[in-house]
Backbone:
């Protein structure tokens, strides 16, 4: 890592190289930023983090929970515009204790987080209601099907969230979770439904594809290669893709296109576009629109600098207890990348649904794991916890929490698709 970016102009640097870079490292972004002023030293802590983690018209039918064929029609409603409302009656959708599959990394209460307010906010779209999540209904949709989440550790959280949302509807012995290299697989026996996570932080192939032993500082992306991954996606009924933070460590990235010995530095946005094109080509050659559905999650925002929502402050997301109300767009949230995704999807001959969860998540400065998380399979030490400035993770989210809302939105779309 070079530390030559010692410009006094913090905003300029933080937008791409720093903020985004730090997304990778589970909250150590702050370190990187400080590094700009100080340099040296923190590189090792950086590496430590990375390697440890690898990743209107609304129809309300009051009886819809019992009626298998009904759904709330969200077709003409932009569910991504709305606000967070306090709702300690219907939230959270599950508890840490009730979900045996919940991973330590995101179980913030168990890891000592003193407040639990972040669990009680419900996303309320402006022009409609999201359908109430019904695990049995989703299991019926998923009967004899595979639902696969593909991407990095953010995407893995969405998988973990989905497992927790579904599992309570299944009796003991009717559900299982196992890991095989690159995958986590949840199986609901009675429904013969499979929910999977597949590790592919760049979607295309890269030298970071090992599910636990990643190379982060020396990333090398093979922009035109996808077959080693995509062979695992063939025939999957519902595919949900996501890729962002791993691209964003620096504004340039080493990559190959064609000859694997011909390594060049590419602008990240150029490389991202090329990689998505490779993905798009695979979709067009492999997806059967009659039987398969494809979704793409928009980028998950970070909250690395409290000065963005609280001018003059010097912290990060640590100790934040309330969502941001009102207009807000964080500077780590790259619109150019969002545009590339949008354009790639528009040009496709098949339908891919873009789930634009960035804005709603950007309001949730209060919902990150901060210091109540782990690195390399171990909870933060007392010393690390005492230093939230350097050790708070403002990239990943506590569960129950924001990824549950992403899944509610996915659920709303699945209802629409499968009951229509
Ligand atoms: C729910 O929130 C309201 C408003 O903050 C509060 O008055 C009430 O005590 C809460 N109920 C529970 C069960 O926590
Ligand atoms: C179980 O689901 C898989 C897809 O996940 C499907 O290929 C298989 O045919 C299903 N089995 C039965 C008995 O329907
Ligand atoms: C991780 O990968 C590196 C480089 O590919 C390799 O040298 C190292 O032995 C691997 N570590 C483990 C624990 O597998
Ligand atoms: C990827 O695919 C190539 C050929 O298609 C193969 O030689 C290589 O071993 C594969 N790599 C992995 C990690 O599976
Ligand atoms: C690309 O790889 C070369 C050779 O390993 C290295 O010197 C350079 O810093 C890398 N560039 C980036 C952006 O990582
Ligand atoms: C790469 O980005 C720089 C700075 O944004 C820009 O000046 C340059 O033209 C870009 N190069 C390519 C090949 O897109
Ligand atoms: C996604 O949401 C953002 C913020 O609400 C908006 O600016 C952008 O246009 C949306 N993108 C798409 C493709 O709908």
Residues:
């Amino acid at each position: 890592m070079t530390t030559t970016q010692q410009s006094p102009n913090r905003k300029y640097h933080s937008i791409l190289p720093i903020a985004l870079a730090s997304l990778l490292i589970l909250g150590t972004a702050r370190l990187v930023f400080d590094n700009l002023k100080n340099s040296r030293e923190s590189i090792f802590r950086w590496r430590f983090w990375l390697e440890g983690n690898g990743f209107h018209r609304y129809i309300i039918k009051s009886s819809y929970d019992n009626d298998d064929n009904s759904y709330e029609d969200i077709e003409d409603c932009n569910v991504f515009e709305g606000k967070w409302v306090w709702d300690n009656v219907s939230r959270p959708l599950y508890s840490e204790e009730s979900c045996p599959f919940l991973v330590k990394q995101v179980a913030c209460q168990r890891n000592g987080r003193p407040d639990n307010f972040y669990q009680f906010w419900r996303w309320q779209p402006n022009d409609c209601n999201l359908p109430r999540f019904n695990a049995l209904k989703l299991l019926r949709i998923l009967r004899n099907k595979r639902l696969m989440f593909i991407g990095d550790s953010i995407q893995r959280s969405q998988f973990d969230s989905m497992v927790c949302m579904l599992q309570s509807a299944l009796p003991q012995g009717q559900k299982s979770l196992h890991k095989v290299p690159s995958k986590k697989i949840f199986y609901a026996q009675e429904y013969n439904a499979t929910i999977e996570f597949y590790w592919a932080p760049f979607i295309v192939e890269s030298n970071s594809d090992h599910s636990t032993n990643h190379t982060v500082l020396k990333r090398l992306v093979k922009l035109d290669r996808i077959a080693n991954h995509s062979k695992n996606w063939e025939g999957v009924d519902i595919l949900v893709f996501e890729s962002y933070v791993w691209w964003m460590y620096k504004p340039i990235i080493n990559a190959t296109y064609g000859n694997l010995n011909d390594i060049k530095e590419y602008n990240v946005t150029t490389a991202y576009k090329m990689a998505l094109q490779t993905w798009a080509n695979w979709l067009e050659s492999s997806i059967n629109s009659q039987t398969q559905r494809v979704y793409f999650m928009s980028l998950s925002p970070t909250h690395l600098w409290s000065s963005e929502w609280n001018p003059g402050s010097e912290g990060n997301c640590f100790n934040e207890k309330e969502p941001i109300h009102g207009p807000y767009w964080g500077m780590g949230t790259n619109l150019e990348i969002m545009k590339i995704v949008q354009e790639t999807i528009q040009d496709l001959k098949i339908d891919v649904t873009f789930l634009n969860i960035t804005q709603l998540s950007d309001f949730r400065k209060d919902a990150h794991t901060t210091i109540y998380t782990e690195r390399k399979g171990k909870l933060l030490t007392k010393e690390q916890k005492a230093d939230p400035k350097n050790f708070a993770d403002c990239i990943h989210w506590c569960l129950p929490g924001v990824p549950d809302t992403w899944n509610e939105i996915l659920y709303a779309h699945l209802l629409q698709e499968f009951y229509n």
